Amino acid sequence: MGTKPPAISVIIPTFNRSAMLADTLESFAAQSLPKNRYEVIVVDDGSKDATREVCRDFASRIELKYLHIDNSGTSAAKNTGVLASRGKILLFFDDDDIADHRLLEEHLNAHEHHQAENIAILGYTTWAPTLSVTPLMRYVTDIGGFLFAYGGLKDGQMLDFTYLWAGRCSCKRSFLAKHGVFNRQFRAPGIEDIELGYRLSKFGLRVVFHRAAVSYMTRAVTFDEFCERCERQGEALFLFSQLHDDPIVQQYCQLADPLIENRAVGVDAEARWPEIAALFREKVDQAGRVERLLAWGFEPEATLKESDNAASKRSAQAEAYRLQMHELFVKVSERERLSSEGAAAHQAEAYRLQMHELFAKVSELAAQEEGYRLQMRELFAKVSELAAQEEGYRLQMRELFAKVSELERLLSERGATHQADLAKQTAVHQAELAKLNRDVGDL
């Protein structure tokens, strides 16, 4: 491909999803935007499948960079893509989604309309038409708003940092270079984008919804997968609340006041478990009601009445949840100890991005300087050529001057000779005239 930087860079972190990644890359190979105006960067976070081979197959069809890192987490993968990117606009994209054929063109159109550096663009994601959408899938992306909250959004609406959804958002690379990238402490996807958005909001980040920038989710969500995602998101929200002691963050994380004011972590969590458990009891009861509702809704023959065995099973499950919560709080204490190291690593990542940006600018200036040198050489060659022509003109002028002088001399000599001849002829004519007069007088 050409050396001119693309207009937009697509960054796709991936892990062991080679089959779905192939569909994702196929959708980017079919974009309406000319291929020399975009690049796709796939960051492989330690996959063991055919991810590398899939990327190799697409390398001849689109401008694609394949980068492999050592299972460092989603934030590190995204930061690696940012560092390797060349486009002024960065679009973060999920490896199990597919892009509408006008996705990149629409993101660029939106950025052209909103050129301020602090403006990010949020596209619209929906389920792929080929999927059979269950009530649960519809709920988590619509009414419940667990994955997305597009309900009520208007095209062109200006939004806050909580809408910086990395899998469907684009932003200016220069804004990240100045103010920071993803925090590497967030290894699993889910909250790393919101945490970045919160930090960028301190520098004026705003998100604009652009409905025409469409992408599609291709992977169905089961109830078990949704529960696992909620667990990961809960851990990430807790980390988010620990990193930023701000009421805005605490409200977003939906932490109850006793946990905010008197955090219980490590060994203290066991002593204060009754207090902590009360905060989660309602959620556990709600989960039980949802489980019974699902059984009633999807198994018509099931009964709502619990047997003693089912109640005992639920009690054992609640005890298991209690133990998991205790382990979680113990882990949090260790995370707090490492938070300063993580913050330093995050800052180093931001510095690395700034250095990369500066290096790109220096390279650009060096290229400009080389261009100026070439122009100076061309100008010097032209001046030398003109000087040679001028010297040639001088020689021609000297030769012409010499010839003119010679002509003047010859004309002068010829003029003197001509005058002498005229004098002689005049004397002869006068003598003949005198003789004629005498002859006439004799007559």
What low-confidence regions span 5 or more consecutive residues with pLDDT below 50?
256-270, 294-307
CATH superfamily of the domain at 1-219: Spore Coat Polysaccharide Biosynthesis Protein SpsA, Chain A
Quaternary structure type? single chain
CATH topology of the domain at 1-219, by name, is: Spore Coat Polysaccharide Biosynthesis Protein SpsA, Chain A
Specify the structural class. Answer: alpha/beta
Tell me the number of strands.
9
Describe this structure in words.
Strands 1, 2, 3, 4, 5, 6, 7, 8 and 9 form a nine-stranded mixed sheet that branches. It contains 13 helices and nine strands. Helix 1 packs parallel to helix 2, helix 6 (173-179) crosses helix 13 (308-442) and helix 8 packs across helix 13 (308-442). It has a domain at 1-219: Alpha-Beta Complex (Spore Coat Polysaccharide Biosynthesis Protein SpsA, Chain A), CATH 3.90.550.10. The chain has 443 residues and is of the alpha/beta class. Strand 2 (38-45), helix 2 (51-58) and strand 3 (64-69) form a beta-alpha-beta unit. 60% of the residues lie in helices and 12% in strands. The chain has helices at residues 18-29, 51-58, 74-84, 103-113, 135-141, 173-179, 192-201, 223-243, 247-253, 257-261, 268-271, 273-298, 308-442; strands at residues 8-14, 38-45, 64-69, 89-92, 97-99, 119-127, 158-159, 169-172, 206-217. The chain starts with 7 loop residues before the first strand and ends with a helix.
